[in-house]
Amino acid sequence: MASAHKNACVSDPGTSAATSRAVSTSDQDIPSPENLLHEYKELRERFQRTTNALASAAHDLKTPLSILNGYVELLQSEKLGPVSERQREVLQDMRDSGKRLQNFIQDFLTYSALEIGGLRMQFETADLNECLSGVCRLWSSRFQQKGIALYFLANEKLPIFSFDAPKLERVISNLLENSFKFTPQAGTVWLHAEPYMWERRAASLPSASERRRQSIGHPNSVKVSVADTGPGIPAEFHLEVFDDFFRLPGTEGKDGMGLGLAIARRLVQGMGGKIWVESDPGAGCKFSFLIPFKPVTATASKGKHR
Fold it and tell me: What is the CATH number of the domain that holds 269?
C-alpha cells in the first residue's frame, strides 16, 4: 500500500507559503504604467540634453578646425615659401586628417538635427541626373586614388521633379562613402537611377480593378541604387546597418562613427521614401532607395530602423 502513494502529488504547506511570498515580492517589483512613463520621459529628456551638449561641442570645433585646414592649404600652396617633399607629405596627411575630422563633426551635427527634429525638407524642382553626376565628380578622384572604378550613366527617362537636392546629395554621398570604405582595390561601384512604380501598401487591400490600374500605371517615384563588389553584408544585419552608431562585427577599425547609413535612412524617410539593402556575404552590396515624384510630408523616424 505504501508504494501506491509514492507518486502522489502532495502539497507542502511550507513550500506553498514560500511560493506565495515570492509571487507577492515579484508583484511589488513590477513598476506601474505611471512610473514607466515617468522614467521614459526622464530618459528622453536626459538623452536630449546629452545630444544637445555634444552637438554644441561639435559645432564649437568647426571654426578652429576650419582655420587649421585653411592654414594647411595655404602652406601647401607655397605662397608663404617653398616646401620640401617630406613637408608636402606631412601637410597632405594633416589635410586628410582634418577633412576626416570635419566629416565626423558634420555627421554628428546632422544626426543631432535629425534627432531633435531641427532639419526640415525643402523641395525644389531640379534635375536628378545633374545632382547624381555632381556627386560622382566629387568622389571620382578618391575612387581613382584607391583604384576603384566608379560608373554612372545619366538616364534620359528620369523626369524633372521636386526633391530636396542637398539632402539627396548627402544620401548618395553617404552610400558612395560606404562603398568606398569596403570595396577593395580593383573593385567596381555602380550608381544608377530609374523611374519606378512604387505600389505602397494600403491599410485595406485594393480591389482587382485597382490592382490592374496600378500595374499599368505610370512610374510615381525614382529608384536610386549604389552597388559594389565589396565583401557583402550577412542577412541578419540587413536592418541593423541602418541603426544609429551601428558597426558590423569586424569593421571597428574602419573610419566613421556608424552614422552614415542611419543619416541616409532618416533623410530618405523625411522625403517620404524608403531605403533597403540587398546583399550576400562575398557577393557585394546593393543599397537602393525610393523617392516619390510628388513630395510627401514625412517625419524622419528616430531610433531603430523598422
Answer: 3.30.565.10
- The helix/strand/coil state of 144 is helix
> What's the number of domains the chain is made of?
2
Q: Do 60 and 134 share a domain, yes or no?
A: no
Q: Kindly report the number of other CB atoms within 10 A of residue 132's CB atom.
A: 22
Residue in the structure block whose three cell numbers are 515617468: 38
Q: Which domain holds residue 66?
A: 33-115
Same domain, 147 and 111: no
Q: Same structural domain for residues 146 and 281?
A: yes
157 class by beta-carbon count within 10 Å (0-12 exposed, 13-18 middle, 19+ buried):
exposed
One domain for residues 105 and 131: no
Residues in a beta bridge with 275: 289
The three three-digit cell numbers of residue 41, written as one number: 520621459
Per the confidence metrics, is the pTM higher than 0.85? no
306 within domain boundaries: no
- Residue 248, Cβ density class (10 Å: 0-12 exposed, 13-18 middle, ≥19 buried): middle
* Segment 54-100, tens digit of pLDDT: 667 766 776 777 788 888 888 888 888 898 999 988 888 888 788 77
219 pLDDT band, cuts 50/70/90, is very high
Closest CA to 124 of 170, 172, 164: 164
28 found inside a domain? no
142 and 247 share one domain: yes
C-alpha to C-alpha distance for 230 and 190, rounded to whole angstroms: 12
Tell me: the pLDDT tens digits for 3-33? Answer: 444 444 444 445 444 444 544 545 556 778 8
**Which residue in this structure is represented by grid cell 515624384?**
293
Both 63 and 157 in a single domain?
no
CA-to-CA distance for 248 and 117, rounded, in angstroms? Answer: 27
Of the candidates 243, 248, 273, which has an alpha carbon nearest to the alpha carbon of residue 261? 243
